[in-house]
Write a structure and sequence with these properties.
The protein has 512 residues and is an all-alpha fold. It has 2 domains: 405 residues, Ammonium transporter AmtB like domains (Ammonium transporter fold, Orthogonal Bundle); 36 residues, no CATH class. The chain has 18 helices and 2 strands. Strands 1-2 form a two-stranded antiparallel sheet. The radius of gyration is 24 Å and the shape is globular.
């Protein structure tokens, strides 16, 4: 009977046009992805066995432990992201945010192993790497770092996962789960690694640009601007949430359902940044560099958080928690690019400007009627651009580059304010502009392609019901759910006879 019931249900579902569209989108996306992977393997993996020039560098145990420790800290940022997004969103989409974060991580792991790492970090052309699919045929250590290839992969996987999670920030509350799967494959499998290769690939055109190479130490552009730009494209393609009334129309942002959860998530992100930035030295031997990066990361976050707090007070006469959290996150994003090459004084001012950028970028999105519930675009895209440009202003020229056993002082990175002229600033502007524009174009193509399948946005009925119930069949807070939810239907009859009810909504869930 069970098999017959399943068969009859499948027959019924196949008559539903929406169900057929979702199945075709899922199967079609997998078929396209598999075809691309097989084609690439046929072209590159079979005939090419890549070997590094010269002897394989000796593995450095201390650097390996340092890189892995940093990778684990960066991965902990996933906890911060889902807490931040769930706290700043409405209660009825909390589970959806966590499921998307987990599934995005799993998708990223598979695509980054299969072809993403090869596209991004292996040589080939100035535009894309062409070796090492499935990490096949690569040396045991990555280039001259002395770090085992697999350890380096784990570190960079955590970065790719961060970019993927940023992407969902401006899209919460109305994005369909199948659509999330499809665009996640596009982001982690293609947009992030291919465009990232331009700046971080060994032969990327921005990395080898003359007279000054584009610099992005830990990813203000490569991770945050790319993630923020994809968020912007997604928010525009989706449109605002139902019931969202913007300030110019007499409304304002929907209130977060649990600002405490969001603030704790922000602090966890700050903690994870101590792996994100100092870990990008890839060397525990550069003790001065690690110390300087850690200090600059801290100082930019502190100055940005204070600046956002006081700006918000001047505007509202209230000490606003949400502005403060997004302020220090903007400072962390901004300092991610220049953290190795600027002084403590530079990091202080970089953070202040980032806070101003976050607040006024939020105003701009509100005026343009773009619904970004989390503030992903101001924090990641706008502050990522500012942080990248700030290197061309504040780099002191005295710190060189990190090396496996110390510091390479043969390279000087000097900005305009320290007598370096316009060369580095121009390189930063070219790199930031090229990556931002290319990401926006690719992201709009991706989002509208997914939208054409009918899976990008949930139905009106599904959005009104709430993504948690509509997509996942459960609620985050069953004690405060409306009568008739799955959790309430399971109440013992004795509790019902005694007049016990869990159906009275809290003030936060009533707003949702």
């Amino acid at each position: 009977m069970g098999v017959r019931a399943a068969y009859l249900r499948l027959r019924r579902d196949l008559h539903d046009p929406g169900f057929r569209i979702r199945v075709m989108a899922l199967v079609g996306g997998k078929a396209i992805g598999l075809s691309l992977v097989l084609a690439l393997m046929w072209v590159y993996v079979g005939p090419v066995v890549y070997a590094a020039d010269g002897p394989t560098p000796e593995m450095n145990a201390i650097n390996t432990v340092w890189v892995l420790l940093a990778a684990f800290l960066v991965f902990c940022m996933q906890v911060g992201f889902v807490m931040l997004e769930a706290g700043f969103a409405r209660s009825r989409e909390s589970i959806n945010i966590l499921v998307e974060g987990i599934v995005d991580t799993c998708i990223c792991g598979v695509t980054f192993w299969a072809w993403g790492f090869a596209f991004m970090f292996e040589p080939g052309t100035p535009w894309i790497g062409t070796h090492g699919f499935f990490l096949s045929g690569l040396p045991e250590t990555y280039l001259a770092t002395g770090v085992p290839l697999l350890a380096y992969w784990v570190f960079q996987f955590a970065f790719a996962d961060t970019c993927s999670t940023i992407t969902s920030g401006a899209m919460v509350g109305r994005c369909g789960f199948v659509g999330d799967i499809l665009y996640s494959i596009g982001v982690t499998g293609f947009i992030y690694p291919i465009i990232g290769h331009w700046a971080w690939g060994p032969d990327g055109w921005l990395a080898v640009m003359a007279p000054a190479a584009f610099r992005d130490f830990a990813g203000s552009t490569v991770v945050h601007t790319i993630g923020g730009a994809i968020s912007l494209a997604g928010a525009i393609a989706l449109g605002p949430r139902l019931g969202r009334v913007f300030a110019r129309d007499g409304g304002g942002p929907m209130l977060p359902h649990n600002i405490l959860l969001g603030a704790v998530g922000g602090l966890i992100l700050w903690f994870g940044w101590y792996g994100f930035n100092p870990g990008s030295t890839l060397s525990a031997m550069d003790v001065q560099g690690i110390s300087r990066v850690s200090f600059n990361t801290t100082m930019a976050a502190c100055s940005a958080g204070l600046a956002a707090l006081f700006i918000a007070y001047l505007r509202t006469k209230k000490w606003d928690l949400a502005f403060t959290v997004n302020g220090f996150l903007g400072g962390l994003v901004a300092i991610t690019c220049p953290c190795y090459w600027v002084s403590p004084t530079g990091s202080f001012f970089i953070g202040i400007v980032a806070a101003v950028a976050v607040i006024y970028a939020m105003d701009a999105l509100e005026y343009l009627r773009i619904d970004d519930p989390i503030g992903a675009v101001p924090v990641h895209m706008i502050c990522g651009i500012w942080g990248t440009l700030s290197l061309g202003l504040f780099a002191t020229g005295q710190y060189g580059l990190p090396a496996p056993v110390g510091v390479d002082t043969s390279v000087a990175v000097k900005g305009l304010f320290y007598g370096g002229g316009m060369a580095q600033l121009m390189a930063q502007a070219i790199g930031s502009g090229a990556i931002t524009l290319a990401t926006l174009v690719a992201a709009f193509v991706l989002m509208y392609a997914v939208k054409a399948t009918g899976t990008l946005r949930v139905s009106k009925a599904g959005e009104l019901e709430g993504l948690d119930l509509h997509e996942h069949g459960m609620t985050a807070y069953p004690e405060f759910s409306v009568p008739g939810s799955p959790s309430l239907s399971a109440l013992p009859a004795s509790m019902a006879r005694e007049g016990v009810t869990l159906g009275v909504p809290s003030p936060s869930s009533a707003r949702s």
